[in-house]
Description:
Blueprint: H1 6-13, H2 17-24, H3 32-45, H4 51-58, E1 63-65, E2 71-73, H5 74-86
Antiparallel strand pairs: 1-2
Helix pairs in contact: 1-2, 1-3, 4-5
Amino acid sequence: MKSVTLKDVARAAGVSYSTVSRALSDSPQIGQETRERIRRLCDEMGYTKNYIARSMVMKKLSYTIRQDGFSAPYGYAVSISQYRKRG
């Protein structure tokens, strides 16, 4: 099953993906009505933040120590825990 992306939400809302990103970050540049409409669409479409994609865009990974003693990128640990929840 394909994950819903910011671009998918933007297409459905008829706005740019930057507008969706700003709305989800509570930017004052986005009106309250637009922000609520975008959040409602995100809920309906099943959008969730992709921490790995975010860290790739930001060119920054934070590391965490796993229980087995090895270090791993934060996004990796999040994706594993999300995978286990779907299980």
